[in-house]
Amino acid sequence: MNYKTTIDEEIAALMEQDNPFIAPTLQACYRTLHELSDQSDVARERLRKLQQFDITFVAGTDAGYMPNPFGDLPLGVKLMVENGMDIQEALAFATVNAARVLGIEGSVVTLTPGKKADFADLRRNPLEDISALCEVEAVFLTGQGII
Q1: How many domains is the chain built from?
Q2: Residue 15: CB atoms within 10 Å
Q3: Which residue range(s) make up the domain with 35?
Q4: Beta strands 21-22 and 56-57: pairing type?
């Protein structure tokens, strides 16, 4: 198949204006294609072109679809970084942007008194190596450790 590699700039400009959010779910392509061959250059180029516009990105998954298991969000964030996104920006897509899109940013995202404290304790700093997202030491939901 020959996939279109260009982004329609008129559509991207409308997206900027209407302020939707985009969840690239790169892990879906990775799981479907990359494990058998190199990641699609087309997907990389599309993502890079969309980043040129003021569009809200969030990290998401296609969990439950074909080979995409639940719990794959760290892989999606890692693939965003591997495809040219800044680490802090990719982490914001999985946290701040996602909370804003869901309308819950006032009660989550930061460790502040009065906010829900759902967070993961990682073995290493993901700002130094994004693959550290896959090395969870403990998980806390509403301030209570569950792992």
Answers
A1: 1
A2: 19
A3: 9-104
A4: parallel
Backbone angles phi, psi at 43, to 5 degrees: -65, -40
| 91 within a domain of the structure (yes/no) | yes
The DSSP output letter for 40 is: P
Beta-strand runs (E) in the chain: 21-22, 56-57, 119-122, 136-141, 144-145
- 81, 72 Cβ separation under 8 angstroms: no
Question: Looking at the domain assignment, is residue 114 inside a domain?
Answer: no
CA angle 64/120/116 to nearest 5° reads: 95
Residue 136, in any domain of the structure: no
pLDDT tens for 19-40 read 887 777 777 766 666 554 555 6
Tokens in use for 73? 């969000």
Q: Is residue 120 part of a domain?
A: no
Q: What is the pLDDT of residues 43-72, one digit of tens each?
A: 778 788 888 888 888 888 877 766 777 888
Q: Residue 58 burial by CB count (10 A; 0-12/13-18/19+): exposed, middle or buried?
A: buried
